[in-house]
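Annex B. Sample input.
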Amino acid sequence: MAAQKDPRPCSIADALAVVGEKYSLLVLREACLGNGRFDQLVRNIGAPRDVLATRLRRLVDAGILTKRAYSERPPRFEYRPTRAGLELEPVLMTLMAWGDRHLRQDAERPMVVEHVCGSELVPEVTCRACGDTVRHGDLTARPQAPGWTVAGPTAA
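Annex B, continued. Sample output.
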């Protein structure tokens, strides 16, 4: 069997190409919290200024953030999430909950997010059709990319 040159076509890989670099999701976290000014981002994320500038450019170019001037002299900008950026907020909430459960078991959580109803948010993935909570054993992957099965590429 000939070796497959290209990896599995995957929307996860495509998304990680945009937001998978160190600091990218942290920039989005801060923008969603309303901290979109460069100095706020530097302080709250701890990223080197040049690295942060590169991440911001990429996130703006990808349509995840918008850049808006808030001062002309000197020129200063703030970054706000676009609709695409806001659609990543549940990913941030799920990552935060996972980190709280698996990485901070004996430590106090650094942040709690409350829903508009006043209750603490506990993110949960549910099926849009039936409303059930999604569990690994309930899922069936059906590859749509030609030449691929769940196990990998088909023989040519």
